[in-house]
Fold each of these.
Amino acid sequence: MSTAILTGPPPAGSSLEEDLRSLGFDVRVAADVAGALAAVPATERVAVVDHRFVGHVHALRLALTDPRFPAGATEGALTVQPDARASLTRALTGPDDGASLPGLLAARLEADGVPVHRPDLGVLVAAVPDGGELRAKALAETEAVDDEAVRLRSAVKSRDGFFTTFCISPYSRYLARWCARRGLTPNQVTTASLLTALIAAGCAATGTRGGFVAAGALLLFSFVLDCTDGQLARYSLQYSTLGAWLDATFDRAKEYAFYAGLALGASRGGGHDDVWALALGAMVLMTCRHVVDFAFNEANHDATANTSPTAALSGRLDSVGWTVWVRRMIVLPIGERWALIAVLTALTTPRTVFYVLLIGCAFAACYTTAGRVLRSLTRKARRTDRAAQALADLADSGPVAEAAAGSLGRTVPGRAYSAPFWALLAAACLLIGPLLTGSGGTWRAVLQAVVYAVFAGVAVAQPLKGPLDWLVPPVFRGAEYGMILGLAAQSGAPGALPAAFGLVAAVAYHHYDTVYRIRGGTGAPPHRLVRAIGGHEGRVLAVTIAAALWHGRGFTIALTVLAAAIALVVLSESIRFWVSSGAPAVHDETGEPA
């Protein structure tokens, strides 16, 4: 239970006490706020509210109940979490200058180093009127605005894709409200979305036309629930670290599980079509595209002098309404992508689904990457140590690359474009030989993997602060995943491609987990974890050696064992972290395509 302390008895007819109780507060009226505060258990959230407050209930909800911030305030109301209680006690000891007490306390908290969140209320009213005439005016302004309508609108992301904005959110927000009124939590809705997507994947795996139609419909419903969970979190301000983890990881799990279901269905259908290579290729392409997004954003979000003619052109295009939606659609964000997959699954074959998906996502990846390269080449930006460390963490270098960086890498002079050059050279050494000469599964491929590991170490030997250094992590991801796909496809071993799909899925989870930890400001996973699973170059060496040592089912078994081991280690550490008290509440409010 949270406690709200009113600075005095509210005026006659005021609904303030009732409003605070509806938000879950135990309301106490006390002229001596310091004494009332001392009587509240130190483990509880506490709010101080001016008894003259006039405004919307949702204004109080936004200011007083958001769990993501140590303190929150609006005109006439202040709240602090238990961690900031000591600062609030100190703030109460200062002189009273006659102003509204919550506003005075908020200023003193900030002076004491406590960040105070002040939500943007928009048209919502929050006021402390002094006198009957001003109070009547504030009450009239409150009555003129429907705060429930505002609450529903604000439950939807301010920036989202075309399909989500116009085909899902107009009704999913009402589903979110229905869930809130029945006490459902965002985590429960997220889990329901995952289960629905897994059932959809199971329907696709039947290989029948009826199964494919059901799979498409269920995938769309899963996406509706996926939108609803975030809208429910914003509608009811139910944010949690566990919810952040579930939301960050389940989208990828749902999509990639559906790929696997389509591949199983194709093999079991009347044509017995083997599309596992296409399914794995789609997962590789999608993951690499996400790594491009993450690496570019981490490299530039806190860069100084971050200007570019290309960015200015993009801003001018965004000022023309129709170009905004066209540009959001052509990058195939999650809404458009899932709608495309669902419709094609119901009407066509799994092979057609993957062909269209690969072509569309390849175009989107080229479009976004080319734009970011142009921005990086034309902007004058100085990147921070934090950005360089984030890129180094995303590179996922293991012991072999670290040894190469500390030896050979120290002798290679650093240049502006050295890191992406050595990364691309490493990828070329790893992939071009097996693709052109068919050397996959031989000891020559192992030698090429050793060269890859050495060059990869040289690429990260210097701080990654160059204009294009954000390309290093996605190049490593493409090289590692592409090598696994290539070796599994060339081997012809029964079950090798499904086993490779599982291996890439386990490794990709580790890379997504790294991204969301960095986004939350807690840094990458412990380096012992990276060492335990070998780093990207260690896994490349392990798979190429396995391909050279074992053929046929032996290679499939090796891939399966490696996938299971990595999944066990990575998931154990990830679950331990995300349920711990130190996990960040990472919530995507940007609406960036996923």
Amino acid sequence: MNKQVYTRVAALVLSIPFLVFSCQSPSEEKEPKRGLIAEKAMVVSARGEASRIGIEIMKKGGNAFDAMMATEMALAVTFPFAGNLGGGGFAVYRLANGEIGSIDYREKAPGAAHRDMYLDENGDVIPGLSTKGALASGVPGTIAGIFEAQAKFGKLEPKDILQPVIDLARNGFVVSTQQAGRLQSIREVVREVNGENTFYAKEWNAGDTIKNIALAETLERIASNGRDEFYKGETAKILVDHMQKMGGIITEEDLAAYEAAWREPIVFDYKELRVISMAPPSSGGVTIGQILKMVEPFDLKGMGHNSADYVQVLTEAMRRAYADRNYYLGDPDFVEIPISELLDDAYLSNRMESFDPEKATLSSDIAEGSVLFAESMETTHYSIMDEEGNALAVTTTLNGAYGSKVYLDELGFFMNNEMDDFSSKAGVPNMFGLIGAEANSIAPGKRMLSSMTPTLVERDGKLWMIVGTPGGSTIITAVAQTILNAYEFDMTMQEAVEAPRFHHQWLPDQILFEENTLDSTLVQILSAKNYLINEGRTPIIGSVDAIMVLPDGKLEGGADPRRENEAAGY
């Protein structure tokens, strides 16, 4: 079948200062652009209030893990788009002494869940059932995760950490222009799901102040009673009662049984870098490892940043890595995952043997690799470095924007729609277009596969970068490109974060470029090699929040202007 290459030239997206894809290397004479520079500690997140509260906690004697609890809950207040109590996430850490680890507080399928719960009598997926409404939610893990991490490594009392967040919820936060647009865009579906009188049914405009008293009261109970308030206390009872009245299947037993899990992170080398990323049920660490190791033999710097050759090589590595991701990866507590084989140098070299610099490889010709033994823009990431030298990369989500759109008015937060990250049916794409397989099928108590990729990078044995992003299926490729931008092309942290990005995920077989970043030469070269380029609008790919440790020990924050991210430090 003939395939047509589509391109779209659109008006400049205001307030997003993207560079343009070009076949030329960046000018050597250009003055480097830097983000916020701090002497001792830094937080970079999706909201200034959350970053500043994290810094406030560290100034009061807390460390990165105390700041994690404060920042995460402040995002739940000010960024309900993805910040949450009703969702989950992953955190990768590196202590000042070099010890590394990670915590998995991903949601779980309720006990009553089963593999065919979103299929009709003909075995077809019922549209919307896994994305909207109470049946779309997994058992939340956020409160368990932040309490588990803080209890093990933190220094302050949770009550003291949460008080500034409670004050923020009571006193309110100002709605930004971007946020007003998001709230207005989901207003009707929130009313449809929750009724006319639900909190976010109101029309919120830029400049309005939102005071979430219900959330403040929920956080006060949690501050007084600890994590068990959410999983076994009054909050748990309210949550279950509300969800079951709406047709959900989460029970008090499901909440009481939930535990966060400590995981060994994925660790691999890329040239002189040591990359530390999240293990399954995140697909991030394995997939980013495959991508970087497949492109490692190529002279990327010699090709030029975002040149046609560079785009092609990285695209072909992405294509092959995502084919493996979609087939082999799932919850390691339920399926055997051949991680060492998937990251084996010989295996990855073999995967790239079919690469032809003269033409595109068809995704129809790329299946999962043969080894011995088989997600969202609507996410948020934050990066933390404390003055002791402890580092955290944390990515958390409700999955879709405002999750399942179920809002618990009595508690003040949205519930997730993470059940969509399972394979509702093998071979059928989820809301991000990702194809799933048996390894990621639904089962009671199972964690769903994720693209979230919180990542730390060491250079010369020392911490060099903390990085992560929202972006659904584009998270992995955005993180990979940010690392390559800084390492291969000597960009500052801010430049590496702002540089234009592209994405390929095996299926659908097309390269996604950000709007207004393509030049005609690049299009002509890739088109001549039979690459399909996105026809539709792709305004942004990811929204990276990152920190770089500079040679003098100072910290540079990279706050992505694609969203209203902000760095704070001292």
Amino acid sequence: MRELRGIGASPGGAAGPVYRLAPPPALPPLAETVDPAAEKTAVREAVLAVAADLTRRADTAVDATAAEVLRAQVMMAQDETLIDAADTAIDGGADAPHAITDVLAGHRAAFEAAGGYLAERVSDLDDLRDRLVAACLGQPMPGVPDPGHPYLLIARDLAPADTAGLQPGLVLGLVTAEGGPTSHTAILARTLGIPAVVRCAGILDVTDGALVSLDGASGVVVAGVSADTVRTVNANRLAEIERRARSHGPGRTRDGHPVALLANIGSARDLTGEVEGVGLFRTELLYLDRSDAPSHDEQVAAYRDVFAALPGRKVVVRTLDAGADKPLPFLRLADEPNPALGVRGLRVARQAPTVLTTQLAAIAAAAAATDADVWVMAPMVATAAEAAAFAESCREYGLPTAGVMIEVPAAALRAGQVLRHVDFLSVGTNDLSQYTFAADRMCGDLADLLDPWQPALIALLAACATAGVAAGKPVGVCGESAADPSFALVLAGLGITSLSMAPRSIPAVRESLAAHTLNECRQIAEAALAAPSPEAARAAVAVLRVSYGWATAAPDEGIRICG
């Protein structure tokens, strides 16, 4: 057996034969003679074929975020500037595959230089290039294998078009050589309930068909396990899935302390199964790929669909989280040297105030037409003054419960002052990690710094929770860390009042909380805070959980069977 280590990205244990993602098409030598008219036609036919395929995948995607990214790829493919640039390259002597490759290489360099959201889209451009080249060459689209039986998928990384159609019953687990814990692949794996490990060096050296086990919590991958191990790991996983399917009710510790378990959604279609409410309603889907802002009535209809599905339950709406690092054409914001640190989130209102006021008016109108308990929060808030101004705007539009997201360390450090002006806080641990450690979320080389078990991040979470207790106001967590069953105990012990995550993650967190008392959670939080490293924090919590009688819980929370 050979043990490999990566970063646990989606909790769960899985084992089976591995198969790798189909490789991209090899670019052939440049044709000696080129018929420009024929090559230009080939480019257009490739664009039509790829756009049709991506649109089909978007329409059938199980995840709204994946569908959103696929539709963005369609927009990229159909962009006239891309086609015109390819025509120019062909006029210069290139054939269709080389023209497409050269043009998208230029776009790729520009995206990387821009940083932030655009840098995150580099893999989307690479995938688009490979699909267009394959179409030009008459080759099959690169993508997910189908060996006819369940398996573990391994790849350098996965593009949205690959992940959009993943079937949890067929793909038992994912292991990638690149990526990070907040990458699209990791987020979608958690959404689908597929165990995943990212940034696993050496995984591409494992041959197709080899038996491998993975632990999506610890990041341990073992190649060369026995068939008995495969059967044991998967039997344990199925038993756990069946047990969690029977899990219902509100989140609470073993002694009855409530910790609300809420869902992260992008639209009404993401509401699957039983949920206590919504802790993060991302409203960006309504704004993407548009040359003008959605109208008041259009927004009211979209928000009302979600509110009507949750009568009497809490729905926390995040106002538009976009800007220079998540560009929307209709905003017409100026280019910035460092977009991730520029005009984004609530800061957009400084330059385009009507975008926020129209959205608040639409949210208020939709809320008035339903029985949902609608809360509103702003992203990218840095100061108490910004929080106060946002809360005042919410109340002007008849929205009584206003809060802010804590993603900027300055806001976390002044959480008490922020809470003087708003009704609640919601910590977005993905961005808070990014800004605390000066580590881009999409930079795989820095993925270890984005580990939610980093003691410095836990200290900021503790500061927010303590401020909430002192003010008598709720503080939730809506970042991906909330979906980790063990980390949920740390959060509960710190005083966090609600956890929001992909709906599929809720049962595991519910069962984890139910296995421990509030006092045990507090001791677990103290141990994590005192640890010198993420690894030490995880280990300390695991030891405490066993001492509290947690002996057989979850082969997906760090228990590894090596055959």
Amino acid sequence: MKKKKKISYLATTAFAASLLVAGCSNSTSSSASNAKGQNSSPSYGLKNVQLPLKKKETLKFLTQSSPLAPKDPNGKLIWQRFEKDTNIHIDWTNYTWDQFPDKRNLELASGDLPDAIFNAGLSDNDILRYAKQGVIVPVENLIDKDMPNLKKILDSHPQYKKLITASDGHIYSFPWIEELGTGKEAIQALDDIPWINKKWLDELGLKMPTTTDELEKVLLAFKEKAPAGNNTIPMSFMINHGGEDPAMLLGAFGMGDNDDHYMVTENQKVVYTANQPGYEKGIEWLHKLQTEGLIDKEAFTQDWNTYVAKGKNYRYGLYFTWDRANISGNNEDYVPLPPLKGPDGTVNVPRTNGYGFDRGRMVITSSNQNLDLTAKWIDKVYEPIQSVQNNWGTYGDKTQQNIFELTSAGTLKHLPLNGTAPVELRQKTNVDGPLAVLNEYYGTVTTKPDDAAWRLDILHKTYVPAMKATNNYPPIFLDKDSQDQLTQLETVVKPYVERMKAEWILKGGIESQWDDYVKTLDKDGLSKILTIKQQAYDKYNSGK
């Protein structure tokens, strides 16, 4: 299941192009590196590695974790068991999420490289830049030689091998894969579910709204008559914040919107949502709600903690997020708002480009002098029963609540959450990083999490039937020149789009400013962005 801090994802800072890569300490040998940060000759270290080792060895890893987790990752039961099963001790340097991007880059720039970076949070730009500088090493030969678990996954699911292979033919990183359904039925197909206060609807004798006009009337009734009185917030969101943004409502006006603003039409054309006519009409409608006092005044500035605090106090008539348990608790006071019919009769649920996939979860650095040992360690996290625990948490922990129980058949059964917010429990107990949880594991290795099965049922019954888009945009690995150009253009276009979106909902003006806005997008390079995306999409689909 998704974690939003949505999980989303980490920013990086640039560092010097010429790195002097010094060796990091481990239990086997020191590094010999040249001034470009590249090993003069890779050292595979121990030969014929079999786990568990007869003699304990140590590797040095850099990582990140939730502030809710132990400062030392070895305090987690998963890693204690893992060390026992491998006889490999990991010397962790660990930072919390908020500190990690800057700390990671400072450590890499210092030249004192760890053996590997676990839960690395690397963007495509990072991977390609560090590969070019020789800071990280290609791993496709290690996968073929030392990693039977991962190799089996890539052979049986070739789309993932395609997605992790750079344009130069090398693989530089190890992925995180979480399958929960496929296509429109995948759990990531809709991010920002709107949750409406069913308790207020019932107490006020209101029917569930089915159109944008009916929703407006319901929100007005919440404002004027809701039991929360002066504390009532008819509708709240976090603008431009993934699952907490109200983009789903814009589907009633046409194509709708999603968090990255790209969609693929039925004729395989890549388009931008935020310059479509229906987008203009939808934003205009949201501004109307704003002028009527139906939108939270803090919706344009609040952080996650503020958003959650108000939700836990049941102040919202309608709000948006991935899972209501993280905002208002796992109860029936809030239920999914069904897709709404717009002014011209349109009913559409905008589909995201979300995949249960992250390319940059782990990399091996050029200072690593024990590649075979490291590869064997990493491959073990791709064992089905290990991946399941790394993703969600473990069993048999006597010090805190468990995610699983281990059955007599050796499979993992999800335990009831008993009111605990799933994201908080998982952050305390799982280890994340590279892993693979495939659809075929459900029923054979593990059960589905109750909250995931419940969410999939909601999508299947409520939203997927109204989801018009057959296609979405996969996480294609661009070549470095294209990625550099795309990043440069998107750093201008996307902030402008999202700034104007917030400004128009809050202050209005979209009708008079629309033409100039569209011209500005073209001037800032949107047409070039779409050309890059289209060419990559066509190439990906052609199998080249």
